[in-house]
Amino acid sequence: MITILAIESSCDETSASVCRNGVILSNVIATQAVHEQFGGVVPELASRAHMENIVPVVDKALKEAGVEMNELSAIAFTQAPGLIGSLLVGVQFAKSLALALNIPLIAVHHMQAHVLANLIPQEKPSFPFLCLTVSGGHTQIVLCETATQMKVLGETIDDAAGEAFDKTAKLLGLPYPGGPLIDKYAQLGNADRFKFPEPQIPELNFSFSGLKTSILYFLRNAGTSLVYKEEFLASEEEQQKFIAENLNDICASVQQRIVSILLNKLKKAVKQTGVQQICLAGGVSANSGLRKAFAELGEKHHWKTFIPSFEYCTDNAGMIAITAYHKYLAGDFVSLAVQPSARAEW
Ligand code: KG4
Ligand code: ZN
């Protein structure tokens, strides 16, 4: 019996999960509300909140799983990438527990874990599969050859897809994180009303910063132009009026463009690799427009498509636990000297 306790603390979610023989028994997530008033994650506040949350979250995860500490086979934690102060809390906690229980320690790469969240449900993709990972910090197309062998085929050269949603929301005066709100308003709007540009980026890489700039100019010109035009700048009042009268259509049009940027690259990746088992991962995969277009595309091209349930799409320790389970099987452990890293190569 392999029973693993996993801890995730890379950003603003403190999470713990218990996994037994590859089955998730619990996945407790404490979201830090403290950042909302600042319109983004404040690193120092995130580490403090992790320190407050980690003991109750781990306790709850063990209780929900009905597992005692002495039944654990290993402790897993997110090593990278993430906010260094936040990662440190999880790493120190995991090390102390592994030392006290005298059991092995497993270091997990957060982005690999997002991909492997697709192995949590009963109906799983078979290897090799492609995964489009879309979150607030990352946008990647990953070729997953085995549970321990992955290759990044393409990624964003600037903003992540989630950032594109959140920054657009900010321009529209919506609170952080604005992605879910854009999704909500988009459902009521006409996606063909406004045409935002699709960037021409080589290979399988993405770019979202040009889209953000064109939305900025579009709003400043009260919808008359996507380019910088000093003589056409609308007053603050005119901009607010334009947004208020057209919010649903703007959200629908922006969302449609973000989704088409993502899926056009995914189509290209399928063409290049010939792989037809396709997964989504990361918090943005909650987006209803993306889910619908992804499913339709899959049907049209006869791909087998997979999306983990929402609880395993946003940051969570369940995905760390499933990744750790496969690392356990491969004998991939780390020593107590292991350190976290804000940025990490694969
Ligand atoms: O994976 P995640 O929870 O955290 C990171 O690791 O970044 O992703 C959070 C991102 C945020 O940018 C949030 O706005 C976005 O996912 N998001 C959405 C939706 N739900 C969450 N974006 C668009 N539509 C949604 N329904
Ligand atoms: Zn994440």
Automatic annotation (TrEMBL):
User: Please, which domain of life does this record's source organism belong to?
Assistant: Bacteria
Residues bound to substrate are: T133, V134, S135, G136, G137, D166, G179, D183, N287
Q: Name one GO molecular function term.
A: tRNA N(6)-L-threonylcarbamoyladenine synthase activity
Q: Which cofactor does it need?
A: Fe(2+)
GO annotation (BP), single: tRNA threonylcarbamoyladenosine modification
The UniProt annotation places Fe cation binding at: H110, H114, D315
Query: What's in the keyword line of the UniProt record?
Result: Acyltransferase, Cytoplasm, Iron, Metal-binding, Transferase, tRNA processing
Q: Name one GO cellular component term.
A: cytoplasm
If you read the UniProt record, what top EC class would you report for this enzyme, in one word?
transferase
Q: Where is the Gcp-like domain?
A: 24-321
Per the entry, the cofactor note is: Binds 1 Fe(2+) ion per subunit.
Reaction(s) this enzyme catalyzes, per UniProt:
L-threonylcarbamoyladenylate + adenosine(37) in tRNA = N(6)-L-threonylcarbamoyladenosine(37) in tRNA + AMP + H(+)
Cellular location(s): Cytoplasm
> Pfam families under this entry?
TsaD
- What is this enzyme's EC? 2.3.1.234
Provide the family line: Belongs to the KAE1 / TsaD family.
HAMAP family documented for this protein? TsaD
Provide the function of this protein: Required for the formation of a threonylcarbamoyl group on adenosine at position 37 (t(6)A37) in tRNAs that read codons beginning with adenine. Is involved in the transfer of the threonylcarbamoyl moiety of threonylcarbamoyl-AMP (TC-AMP) to the N6 group of A37, together with TsaE and TsaB. TsaD likely plays a direct catalytic role in this reaction.
Task: Output the NCBIfam families linked to this UniProt entry.
Answer: gcp_kae1, T6A_TsaD_YgjD
> Per its record, how is this protein called by name?
tRNA N6-adenosine threonylcarbamoyltransferase
- Name its species: Lacibacter luteus
